[in-house]
Amino acid sequence: MSRLQHFGWFLARGFGPHGWGHPYLDWDYDWTRPDLYQQSARELEQAGFDFVLIEDAPSLGSERTIDLRVRHAFGGPKHDPLLLAPYLFQATRTLGVIPTVNPAAYLPYTAARQFATLQHLSGHRLGLNVVTDTGSARHFSDAPPLGHDAAYDRAEEWLSGIRALWQSWDDGALAADPASGVYADGSRMRAVRHRGGHFAFDGPLNALPFPSGEPVIASPGGSGRGLGFAGANSDIQLALAPLHEKSVREYRARIHDAAVAAGRAPSDIRIMFAIQPVLVSSAEEADRLVAASAAPDDATLVQVARKQSSDLETDLTALDLDAPLDLAVFGDHVSHGSIRRLTGDRDVATTPLRVHLTALAKLGRISDRTGFVGTAEEFADLVEELGEWGNDGILLWGDLHPVTLHRTRRARAGAASPRHPAARPDRRRTARHPPRVLTPPWWRRVRVRAHVRAHVTQRAASGCGRQPFV
């Protein structure tokens, strides 16, 4: 029997203009209003998803790249996902919501209080995707920008400080006893006094403790320091790596090693690989789509370069397509994972930029593991294969726009897809990691094949077979 898999949705463009530039987008909708996202959240919840993770970047980039980021809405504008979260909680009952947060943008005490408020408002369905985007730091301070690893050091100090504030109410501090008239016992609150390399603040926190556990922590990051941060701090790790057995097992082993080094068990963290499949009704149709993308023209490559320029905050359109890519063009703030998505496993020193862009433009078949175009059966085989390699779940990647809403209707998971709570063991009792309740009510798993079959059957009935799964 296949290993049960978690399913999450990565809202890849953040709280921004979803669907912009898609030729099949004919709806005149307002991406700034909550209705679109609330309906999307209900669809995902009904489909059996565990959570939606909302990407964010506060910055529009540098003067050199700002036009590339906004011209086609790849990198902005974006509104604050933390303020969208309450609307999604209101529209759903079990779906987890994980906004992206940057430690550079939030003072620890303010962050701890805001996140505690959302955790209570949501019925303990909040998660936090902690990122270290150093390019955004200039909007919040005139301090010199931190390097890649130093930004992770700041994030660890920030997260440690927030947790200290969350835990500043000891057991019994909240009495809420009508008979005695005592609401809280101040003698059971600990005075937090933090003086660190990046932050200074005092506690205790003026917000209630959590009866059902702290917010779930997620993180991306494929560098050694990023994987170390995930192993030490995260409950969910967003994985971007080639999906073959050796790569998947090695990636998971690195995170598990980091978890053990930090005094945690490997089972304390769920590793979820991001996938954007294109599901079609037949193998013949999949072959036709792949063949049509085999020789992208220069106009297509320029469009791919624009998208990558936004993600990498580096103008690739100004580079020679037929020359090798010099990695020195990327600043220290650029994510190693983002660079890896561009270059893949190819030799950067000898491979022309054109080849990297062509690889991104071309589609491949799920059946031979060259890409993600295929039938429902082939996609189910892929996910089951990942489960056999020890994978914990899949993060489907895409926008939320009206087309997506029609494409993502599924049969209710109840009878077709048995769902069970995922046992998430408590962390070891250590000074650094006191016990936490790590099984949020929204964390579930579904059986892969029944889930995918039900989804694609519904897609076929609504005539949406040729568009991406997400």
Topology:
Layout: E1 6-11, H1 35-46, E2 51-54, H2 66-71, H3 81-91, E3 96-101, H4 108-121, E4 127-130, H5 148-166, E5 174-177, E6 182-184, E7 193-195, E8 200-202, E9 216-219, H6 224-233, E10 236-239, H7 245-261, E11 270-275, E12 278-279, H8 283-292, H9 298-312, H10 336-343, H11 353-361, E13 373-374, H12 376-388, E14 393-398, H13 402-407, H14 413-416, E15 419-421, E16 444-446, H15 448-461
Parallel strand pairs: 1-2, 1-14, 2-3, 3-4, 4-9, 9-10, 10-11, 11-14, 12-13
Antiparallel strand pairs: 5-6, 7-8, 15-16
Helix pairs in contact: 1-3, 4-5, 5-6, 6-7, 9-11, 12-15
Family: Belongs to the NtaA/SnaA/DszA monooxygenase family.
Region (Disordered): 409-436
GO molecular function: monooxygenase activity; oxidoreductase activity, acting on paired donors, with incorporation or reduction of molecular oxygen
Shape: globular
In order across it, which strands form the biggest sheet?
Answer: 1-2-3-4-9-10-11-14
Task: Assign a percent range to the helix content.
Answer: 25-40%
CATH architectural grouping of the largest domain: Alpha-Beta Barrel
Number of strands: 16
Total number of domains: 2
CATH superfamily of the largest domain: Luciferase-like domain
For the sheet with most strands, the description reads: 8 strands, parallel, barrel
Radius of gyration, whole Å: 22 Å
Organism: Microbacterium telephonicum
GO molecular function, one term: oxidoreductase activity, acting on paired donors, with incorporation or reduction of molecular oxygen
Keywords: Flavoprotein, FMN, Monooxygenase, Oxidoreductase
Pfam families: Bac_luciferase
